[in-house]
Each structure stands twice: as C-alpha cells, then as structure tokens.
C-alpha cells in the first residue's frame, strides 16, 4: 500500500529524532506533552470527562495533534477530554465502523478525496458551517461539504542543483523537458498531483487547471515514463534524490525541506506550480460526540497559534489566514501557506479528484507498470 502524507508525518518525525534533525524543537514539544491528551489505551482517563476521539496515524504526529489540537479545546471547554487514537482512519475502516453501527470515533485525519467519496456514500457527516467558520480557512478548498482542513501540505518540484550549473528547472514544463534538463525524473506512484503537474506541463493556465484533460495528461506521462522512477513512501522520495538516482522529482514539501537542509542547499525546491493540498478531517456518520465534534473541529481551524506550532513541530502548513503573521521568519520559507509561497501554487481540487481518482489512479499504475 502506498504511504499517505499523514503516515509520512509519523515516519518523518520519528526519523528526525533518530537523526537528531531539529532535535531541540522536537524534544521541547515532546517535553510539553504532559499537558496533552493521552492516546487511547493509555492510563486511566479523568472521571466524568466527556470524551472526544481524534483518530490519526500514530507516532509523534499523534502526540502533536494532542498537544496542538486537543489541549487548546480542553483548556477552553471544561469537562472535556480529547483522546488521541492512532488506529489509522482509512476510508475502509470508517466505512466498516459506520456500516456496523458501532461508531466510536469523532474526528478522523483523512483527505479531500476521501471526504468526497465517503460523503457521496453517506458515511461521514456534513460539516456544520454555522459552527465551523469558513472565514477561519484560507480558501473554500479547505472547507468542503464533508470535511475541513486545519493543516495543509504541498507537492513540489525538487532538484539537484549540482546537475544544472547553467540554470535550474522552474516549472513542470521544464520537468518534462528531457533535452534541456537531462536525467531521471522522480514521481509518486499515484495519479494525485502527478497528473496535475502533467496538465501544467502541457501549458494549461494553472489558474484554470480543472477539469484536467485526462487523456492528454496520461499521454504526457507516457512520454517520460521510461526516464522516471516512482516512489511509494516519503523516505524513498528522499533517497532517490539523495543518492543521485534521480536529478529532480515531485515530492512532499516536508521531505524537500529535509533534503535542502541536510545537503546545505545542493538539493533545492521551488514553490512555483506546487500542488497545495488540504489536510482534511472528517466526522464519521453517527459520531458519538455529536454537535461537540463540530465544535472541536471549529476550534482546530479557529486557533492560528497551535497551527503555527504544528508547522514548527511537523512541517504541516497552517490553514487559518491569521497564522501567516505569527510564523517566525526562519519557518516562512518552508510554510506552504505563507502568502509569498501560496500565490505561486495551485490548490488541488479535492472534489474533482474525489469524483475521478479511482479510475485515473489505475490508469497511472498501468502506465508505470506497463
């Protein structure tokens, strides 16, 4: 199974601690976790507390969500306990829980694509935008009918600057130009973001990118397939570039940040034509927290300070428009929603992908393996 961005956050943060990368920041955040909610299955919880369960993908991400999402809600709402459950809220697990009538989860770290698919199947609740404020998100792409996003991430173009002394790639058209920029390309083994980049390489205005011309995008991918390698998880995406097996690639911004810092700028990345994506949370239909679950989600979007702390801790971008002014200068370069970075990017259309992902992803896999 391909690794999702959510799972990658766990792996990357754990790897940072093992390598000592940004260790001081990580340990400082971990040390503060005595204030954070405990994971499900931990020591006994407070007697009489009304519990709300956030389900994520475990590891340090689990702890970060507890600290920066759960703790502020508890502080503002006496009598509530926000529990972190690291089961891994895949769409299949959400469906099984709802179908069985035994829903124990309140909020699930999901995706815009899954929110669309699950919503069409009546497996997740509609977001109550009388409670969750759309003005607390930077655009409508982060407040969908069946999900809302308290964090963001991007797929960006990273490249080995030592391979291009006469000028670096600046666009997806350059990425596809093997004559001007020779060398092996790196892409995710997935349709999402890969076909969006192919559409931009074909010259379509990024401001009017959707709907994608899927046939043309698939044909464009075929042009480069024999000169490309494909990654299935975030650590692979780093390794292909670190070892020189690929000279440029489309990878998550969090991985690009690690490479840029570890190579002292030899491997660089650009925000231009990056694919900005919403870190969507969904509410399974019949969530036991009821209206209080909507309030918890509202607080996750409404509070910019914890979102900034999550950026510093995990690299996830804030989505509250007031957060940008609070980001320290040294983190702005790596913040996908910083105004200077966001204006260069395209916000991925999760609704369009929710309607088209299954078939297109199979088409891409057929091209890669064909």
From TrEMBL:
Q: Where are the transmembrane segments?
A: none
Q: Which PROSITE patterns match?
A: TAT (PS51318)
Which SUPFAM superfamilies does this UniProt record tie to the protein? Periplasmic binding protein-like II (SSF53850)
Signal sequence span is: none
Q: What are the coiled-coil residue ranges?
A: none
Among Gene3D superfamilies, the record links this protein to: Periplasmic binding protein-like II
Q: Which InterPro entries match?
A: SBP, TAT_signal
- The name on file for this protein is Putative spermidine/putrescine transport system substrate-binding protein
């Amino acid at each position: 199974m391909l690794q999702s961005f959510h799972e990658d956050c766990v792996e990357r943060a754990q790897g940072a601690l093992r390598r000592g990368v940004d260790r001081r920041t990580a340990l400082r955040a971990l040390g503060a976790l005595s204030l954070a909610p405990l994971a499900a299955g931990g020591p006994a919880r407070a007697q009489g507390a009304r519990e709300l369960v956030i389900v994520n993908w475990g590891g340090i991400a689990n702890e970060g969500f507890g600290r920066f999402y759960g703790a502020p809600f508890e502080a503002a709402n006496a009598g509530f306990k926000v529990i972190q459950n690291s089961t891994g809220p895949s769409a299949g697990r959400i469906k099984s829980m709802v179908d069985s009538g035994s829903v124990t989860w309140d909020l699930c770290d999901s995706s815009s694509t899954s929110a669309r698919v699950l919503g069409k199947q009546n497996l997740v609740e509609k977001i109550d935008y009388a409670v969750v404020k759309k003005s607390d998100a930077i655009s409508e792409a982060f407040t969908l009918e069946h999900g809302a996003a308290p964090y963001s991430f991007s797929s960006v173009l990273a490249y080995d600057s030592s391979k291009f002394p006469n000028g670096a790639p600046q666009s997806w058209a350059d990425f596809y130009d093997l004559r001007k920029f020779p060398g092996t390309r790196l892409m995710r083994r997935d349709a999402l973001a890969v076909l969006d980049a192919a559409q931009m390489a074909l010259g379509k205005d990024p401001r009017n990118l959707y709907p994608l011309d899927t046939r043309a995008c698939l044909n464009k991918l075929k042009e480069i397939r024999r000169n490309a390698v494909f990654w299935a998880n975030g650590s692979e995406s780093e390794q292909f570039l670190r070892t020189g097996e690929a000279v440029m690639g489309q990878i998550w911004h969090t991985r690009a940040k690690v490479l840029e810092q570890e190579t002292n700028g030899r491997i660089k990345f650009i925000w231009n034509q990056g694919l900005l994506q919403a870190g969507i949370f969904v509410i399974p239909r019949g969530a036991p927290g009821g209206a209080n679950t909507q309030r918890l989600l509202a607080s996750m979007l409404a509070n910019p300070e914890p979102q900034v702390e999550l950026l510093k801790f995990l690299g996830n971008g804030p989505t509250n428009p007031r957060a940008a002014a609070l980001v320290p200068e040294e983190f702005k370069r790596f913040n996908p929603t910083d105004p200077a970075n966001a204006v260069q990017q395209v916000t991925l259309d999760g609704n369009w992908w929710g309607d088209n992902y299954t078939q297109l992803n199979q088409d891409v896999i057929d091209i890669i393996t064909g």
